[in-house]
Amino acid sequence: MKNKLKSFFLILLGTFLVSFGTYFFLAPNEIAAGGISGAAIIINSIFPKIPIGILMMAMEVVLFTIGIIVIGPVFGGKTVFCSFTISGMMLLLEELFPKLHPLSNDVLVQLIFGILISGLGMGIVFNQGASTGGTDIIGKIINKYFKISIGKSVLIPDIVVTAAASWVFGIDKGLYAILGVIINSTIIDKVIKSINTYKHVAIISNEGEKIKSYIVEKLDRSATVYYAKGAYKNNEREVITTVISRKEFFKLKEYISLIDDKAFITVNEINEVLGEGFQNII
Asked: Where are the transmembrane segments (predicted)?
């Protein structure tokens, strides 16, 4: 239940960041940096009476149906929630801040801020096994079948939207949009990699029993124990290895420093862990 609430909160946070970055930085400058939001900005510029939120909802209905069929109902259900949450947030922002003008005359700065914020949100959502809807569903399908990173997978359909942006808004806005989708692709991969980074820790200590108990009972993680012979004194020592998150590592390191400040610890950073207690293998 706790994990489900955490996932729900993270998805809600991610969708808010996508909505915020799009509405306050990208839409006022007519920067269609890919995705359904970009396509909606293009259509809205041609038919300004149709709200961006309504356009996004209409296009998402078709694409999330495809997502449910191709990827599965869990992904589809989460994506439906994300899609309509973003659309709803966009409609709410349009009501609260109507006829929003660019925040400054520097389009490039606003592009960077908009993409940084929305890209961070998309990375959080993707890491929860969902997508923000629209062309991101296409990206997720590409990621599933061609094993391309999710950031690069999202880039492929977004290039089509940016090409349309170049035709509608002119080559200058189109180039901004292309730059935007490239930055967005990079940010998504960086966010997911950062979230999924773990520490592989090996410990040699005279307080091995206490450390094992702390890992299992306090951190709720498992550990592997093996024995190695030192080359200098030729004595056999117990080596405790475990895989933990960054936050858990700081707690473990602090605990070890309190009970054995002469312990020997090696740490390796790993970007993906599959199996019980971590991500599912499939």
From this structure: 7-25, 31-50, 62-87, 107-127, 148-169
Q: What is the pLDDT of residues 54-83, one digit of tens each?
A: 887 777 777 777 777 887 777 777 877 887
The two three-digit tokens of residue 1, written as one number? 């239940």
pTM for this entry: 0.68
Domains of the chain with bracketed CATH: 2-195 (no CATH), 198-270 (3.30.70.120)
The distance from CA 29 to its chain's CA centroid, rounded to whole angstroms, is 25
DSSP 73-118: HHHHHHHHHHHHHHHHHHHHHHHHSTTPPPSSS-HHHHHHHHHHHH
Of 210, 206, 194, which Cα lies nearest the Cα of 269? 194
Q: Are 139 and 170 in contact (CB under 8 A)?
A: no
Beta-carbon contacts of residue 63 (< 8 Å; ≥ 6 apart): 36, 133, 134, 135, 137, 138
pLDDT tens, residue by residue, 97-144: 887 888 888 888 888 898 899 889 988 988 887 777 677 788 888 888
Residues 55 and 40 sit within 8 Å (Cβ to Cβ): yes
